[in-house]
């Protein structure tokens, strides 16, 4: 079974609903303020979401990652600068810090949860932002109500569980009883990634068989 994380594209977005039947593929909770959101008819939501992704890709760059298992889409993460996510203004712990990108959505299909794919998506996001440079952190509004099941269909389905965020490196930045604002410092994420890569390299060095001296070529004289 192959697992990988790739960039979110408009092609991926168009197929996410077909592959996943995810609740967030046409949701505009983050992308529009409440007044603008109420004006969008249900049959127009998918086109509105596609237009938002297209705008962010054009004006800022990659704004998401998609998890693939055996080349099938099984989860995704969406993130962008706070200016592109006006829905965040409804939270009592808003606004997000000006030096941070805002993580809005992490969703994994129920058949593939508890296997580390949510963590892989967050790490893929962090790698992208570290490579860009000039971004200090990622922030997210967490939901403290109920168990941390990614994608649960409740009134708070649009908010990432706070315990999941804590498990992948976020810390509470502004406390709140139900929706704390949490933050992951990208310098910490970079240090963690470097340490893990170094540990893996050491492990590979330990298990790699030592090179044996090559046999002399035919006819080659041996020295005594």
What layout of secondary structure does this protein have?
Elements: E1 3-7, H1 10-20, H2 34-38, H3 45-59, E2 64-69, E3 72-80, E4 100-108, H4 117-132, E5 137-143, E6 160-161, H5 162-167, E7 171-174, E8 181-185, H6 186-207
Parallel strand pairs: 4-5, 5-6
Antiparallel strand pairs: 1-2, 2-3, 3-4, 5-8, 7-8
Helix pairs in contact: 4-6
Could you characterize what this model shows?
The chain is an alpha+beta fold and 224 residues long. The chain has a single domain, classed as Aminopeptidase, CATH 3.40.630. The chain has helices at residues 10-20, 34-38, 45-59, 117-132, 162-167, 186-207; strands spanning 3-7, 64-69, 72-80, 100-108, 137-143, 160-161, 171-174, 181-185. Strands 1, 2, 3, 4, 5, 6, 7 and 8 form an 8-stranded mixed β-sheet that branches. α4 (117-132) packs across α6. The protein is globular, with a radius of gyration of 22 Å.
Brief rundown of the structure:
The chain has 224 residues and is α+β, with helices and mostly antiparallel strands.
Q: Average pLDDT across residues?
A: 82
Helix content: 25-40%
C-alpha Rg (nearest Å): 22 Å
| Name given to the CATH homologous superfamily | Gcn5-related N-acetyltransferase (GNAT)
